[in-house]
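It is worth pausing here to work through a concrete case rather than discussing structure prediction in the abstract. The textbook approach is simple: state the sequence, then state the predicted structure, then interpret. We follow exactly that order.
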Amino acid sequence: MKTVLSGYTIAARGRYTLYNLHLPKMTLVSIITPSFNQAAFLERTIRSVLEQDYRNIEYLVVDGGSTDGSLDIIHKYASRLTWWMSEKDNGQAEAINKGFDHAQGDIVAWLNSDDYYLPGTVSVVVKAFDRHPQASMIYGNLLAVDEFDRTINILKYRQLALGDLLCFKSSASRRCSCAGCT
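Step two, the predicted structure:
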């Protein structure tokens, strides 16, 4: 006897019932954190990614050759990072591009090493892309906090044009699949 119900295959053989789950593939999300001498903030940033409720995340950390203890923090979490490196670079843009070169996700984002995600952020982004398959970029509002986590500013953004988004802090985008993209 074999029955298929809502994506689940249930097969009964003798005394045993076998369950074969046909679950949809979860979208891979790549998150890149560029960092240089940000030890004071880096662990919180890393933990905010690793503690997300969305499980299919590859996390890449690109350090610019820090000398302030950042490497100790990166080593502490190295087994949970997909990829990381530390070498002198030419700044944040180069570090982000190094991360993009190694990222495999269908959704890619970067999170600066002095910023952090609130719980559930990645799940919200994936759901937003699922609900809006025509969207190539999703961005969110920004909650600015002080060193004691007190809210000091809330930035709410209107719908922006692509040109406005080039320097946006709180965004994620789909990996380009069009001809001619590199």
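Step three, interpretation. The longest strand covers residues 29-35. DSSP finds four helices and eleven strands in the chain.
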